[in-house]
Amino acid sequence: MRKHILIVLGLILLVIAAGVTYLAWPDTAELSVDQVAGKLPKITDPRIQTIPTVKVAKVVGWQNGVMPTPAAGLKVQPFATGLDHPRWMYRLPNGDVLVAETNSPPREGGGITGWVMKVLMGRAGAGVPSANRITLLRDANGDGVAEIKSVFMTGLNSPFGMTLLDGQLYIGNTDALVRVPYTDGATKITAKPELVIKLNPGGNHWARNVIAAADGKTLYVGVGSSSNIAENGMDAEKYRANILQVWPKDKNWRIYAAGLRNPNGMAINPKSGGLWTVVNERDMLGSDLAPDYLTQVEFGDNFGWPWYYWGGYPDTRVEPKNPALQQYAKRPDYALGPHVAALGLTFSADAKLGAKFANGAFVGEHGSWNRKPVSGYKVVYVPFGDTGFPAANAKPVDVLGGFLDKDGDAQGRPVGVITDKTGGLLVADDVGNAIWRVTAGG
Questions:
Q1: In the beta sheet, which residues pair with residue 165?
Q2: What fold characterizes domain 2-440?
Q3: Under a CB-based contact definition with an 8 Å cutoff, are residues 220 and 213 in contact?
């Protein structure tokens, strides 16, 4: 009899535990995005999840001439439409714009995890095959619309970042940094890409950005982690979660900075010549952690991933521990908020959007999947002060919104941001299949 009572009590406790788990899932934010943004964000205790909060805006596309919503004093128009998952852009010296029409290579693995990832990517509009193409956009008559759209380069492997250096166009494929000769004004390249250095592919965070350093001799290449918190072991993260510095002439490289989970957008601060990046931080610590961030990066920096976030807060899930790193984990300069998926970055040096947007950085936020309610899905501006860093009490300022409709569905998702030759801000919208142009005078 006693045995039966214990069994019944055990079942009751199991049901109660299951109910508590159900009620606690999915995790709901207790703070606003702004409270977890700025130079001094509020860092709460983690709420570790075994089953992740999954809330991603379903993609419905732009219907009936609807466009994103610009901030007061600005206006928006389509610069180019009918593209195939445009993610990243680069402005050539003559003002032409290259756009990488690209997506993740085929994902590895199957089972439940693979199935969930496939469903999630499909809902978010990221399940389409990669076009593996760079397209050239030209606004020859200066009306703010690219009337020429032509295939510039094909035969690439999930290409992303692009930059010119010494007559060569460098392209970040998911598995290699490659280059081809470039002549000013060229509208098509058929040369076979030359390998500069190999990059470790696979897993998550497939996009490889590349920019020229201020020294005019080297390149920076961002390589995101293959996992959330190195759950597949650190061997799978070799030369990942890094920014690499490359000497292209000799095809040599070194790790410039480490501990950056996914350093996607990178830009040179025009006032200081320093390297800056935006970083996607880790998931499954709850809807309020950890903040994505914008920061200056110097040689030898380590920002703590996977063991620490926001300058020394330990992630207790990571094994083995690394206590010696804690005091050296660099705190980022500016939090952008939790799970906003900050990808795009450009400084406002040659933007002409008015005095309000004259000294700072624009950030493309692709939008969350691991937060309730969702965050991101917009372009924001981070005001800088006279010191060359974000202003002390500044919060991110909305520049372009309206990517979510009244039902919370995604009409588009912003990624790369650059300025065009006239000072307008171009925004790549990968699931809206468009490039939007933001200008003053709304």
A1: 168
A2: Neuraminidase (2.120.10)
A3: yes
For residue 162, the SS3 value is strand
The three-state secondary structure class of 139 is: coil
**Residue 354: partners with Cβ closer than 8 Å, 6 or more residues away:** 73, 74, 440
SS3 breakdown of the chain: % helix, strand, coil, rounded to 5? 10, 35, 55
Give the three-state DSSP class for 168: strand
Half-sphere exposure (Cβ direction) of 55: Cα atoms closer than 13 Å: 19
What span, in angstroms and rounded, lies between the C-alpha atoms of 258 and 130? Answer: 28
Kind plus residue range of the DSSP H or E element containing 111: helix 111-123
As a whole number of angstroms, the distance between CA 243 and CA 294 comes to: 14
pTM of the predicted model as reported, rounded to 2 decimal places = 0.92
Q: With contact defined as beta carbons under 8 Å apart, do 379 and 365 qualify?
A: yes
CA 336/CA 241 separation, integer angstroms: 19
Q: Which tokens hold the place of 182?
A: 């470039």
The CA–CA distances, whole Å, from 138 to 97, 148, 154, 187, 431 equal 6, 5, 18, 9, 22
CA distances for 400 relative to 101, 365, 389, angstroms? 22, 10, 23
Residue 44, exposed/middle/buried by CB under 10 A (0-12, 13-18, 19+)? middle
pLDDT by residue (tens digit) across 210-235? 999 999 999 999 999 999 999 999 99
Distance (Å) of CA 229 to CA 91, 313, 314, 381: 35, 14, 12, 29
What are the structural domain ranges in the chain?
Answer: 2-440
pLDDT digits (tens, 9 = 90+) for 385-396: 999 999 999 999
